Amino acid sequence: MAAAEGQWVLMATGRSPTNIAVIKYWGKRDEALILPVNDSISVTLDPDHLSATTTVAVSPSFPSDRMWLNGKEISLSGGRFQSCLREIRKRARDFEDEKKGINIKREDWEKLHVHIASYNNFPTAAGLASSAAGLACFVFTLGKIMNVKEDYGELSSIARQGSGSACRSIYGGFVKWCMGKKDDGSDSIAVQLADETHWNDLVIIIAVVSSKQKETSSTSGMRDSVETSPLLQYRAQTVVPSRVLKMEEAIKNHDFESFAKLTCADSNQFHAVCLDTSPPIFYMNDTSHRYVLAVHWLGILIISLVEKWNHSEGTPQVAYTFDAGPNAVLIAQNRKTAALLLRKLLYYFPPEDKDLSSYLVGDKSILGDAGLHSIKDVEALPAPPEMKIPDQKFMGDVSYFICIRLGAGPKVVADESQALIDAVTGLPKGL
Ligand SMILES: Nc1ncnc2c1ncn2[C@@H]1O[C@H](COP(=O)(O)OP(=O)(O)OP(=O)(O)O)[C@@H](O)[C@H]1O
Ligand SMILES: C[C@@](O)(CCOP(=O)(O)OP(=O)(O)O)CC(=O)O
What we know:
Elements: E1 10-17, E2 19-23, E3 28-30, E4 35-36, E5 40-44, E6 51-59, E7 66-69, E8 72-74, H1 79-90, E9 95-97, E10 102-104, E11 113-120, H2 130-145, H3 152-160, E12 174-177, E13 190-194, E14 203-208, H4 218-228, H5 230-252, H6 256-275, H7 289-313, E15 318-322, E16 328-332, H8 335-348, H9 356-359, E17 360-362, H10 365-369, H11 375-379, E18 400-404, E19 411-412
Parallel strand pairs: 7-11, 17-18
Antiparallel strand pairs: 1-6, 1-19, 2-5, 3-4, 5-12, 6-11, 7-8, 9-10, 12-13, 14-16, 14-18, 15-16
Helix pairs in contact: 1-2, 2-3, 5-6
This protein binds adenosine-5'-triphosphate and the ligand C[C@@](O)(CCOP(=O)(O)OP(=O)(O)O)CC(=O)O.
């Protein structure tokens, strides 16, 4: 296996982005293989602010497979992690590092165990698609260390078995997950519609409402919807197929009007399906006490603000979309509109602690474009004219805003000092 048998630790580190669906995946036709009831389309988000970083280490001295997530050991025994490990191991190829004297034959990979450490640079399990970034990174980095052929379609179908939406995080830019028809799922893969440079005017602002873990997981929520919602059947069979075609055209032609209308309509229909589920799922809020009203209100306020603004301009300026949580994802057609949007949002949701710069993460320069240099500028903001509730403000309801652009797909982190595992002990750094 190697010159100094048992003495070496081989490592690879990867970083993968999250994605936000503009045509939603909601419902499986096969729970084990994670095969969806409809196609979906997403945009990949800038990994600098929303990504998972994963280091995989392999050594003949490891007695078992182990994993740590955000510094805490988690079990790898779940079916989803096991499916991804099995599928990657099946495709592992010979590997040689002459300098380190490591030579691994294809068949050796079955006997070698892995240590995996992963870290999300944003809240886990709070509706910001940590499972998408996490499972895409898991598969991508395992694929790298095991020298799996770089077939992104195939990698996406393996990531899909970790978490459906993860298959779309295998690419940057605009991505479509084709539901496929085959029972074995081999044609249920993601494809890139256009890379992140294709439509680089778009600016994304996310209102992060809660970093608390959500109540109903997407997995169980969509299972209940499949079993009980008549609207889901109609959506999957009739609405989504034509929406997907229109969305592909909108992306190809940089047609923001169509893109925004489809995005908002699809988010609203996804939440309508959640309400049509028995018992109903309320994702745009959270079921804890006083918080319910605040967060539910926030979603409604943001939808109403965007709808009224778009209507008053005669053409859509911004699209909104909400996943399985209360965070609002707003896509502006360009930087100028994003700056105007930020002024409207900060009017209603000013920061609690007067520190403007930590209230907006990501591209902070948008604050300058919005003419917001200090908290005084926020306090002096005029009420959005299109709204009829000028006197109300909701300080403290938004934890922070993120301003980002579309991003690239998974990448290898070549700088070994950034590995999350210690090359000598084979354990996560800092343990
Ligand atoms: N970096 C990671 N590496 C491996 N697995 C991860 C990682 N991050 C999250 N996960 C897995 O995803 C689970 C969280 O997924 P969940 O769907 O509940 O939340 P979410 O992805 O943040 O929200 P949503 O998918 O609804 O947007 C974690 O419990 C863990 O199993
Ligand atoms: C609302 C969604 O974000 C649902 C994502 O569901 P997951 O991919 O998290 O579910 P599993 O496949 O069961 O892991 C919409 C979307 O991303 O398309």
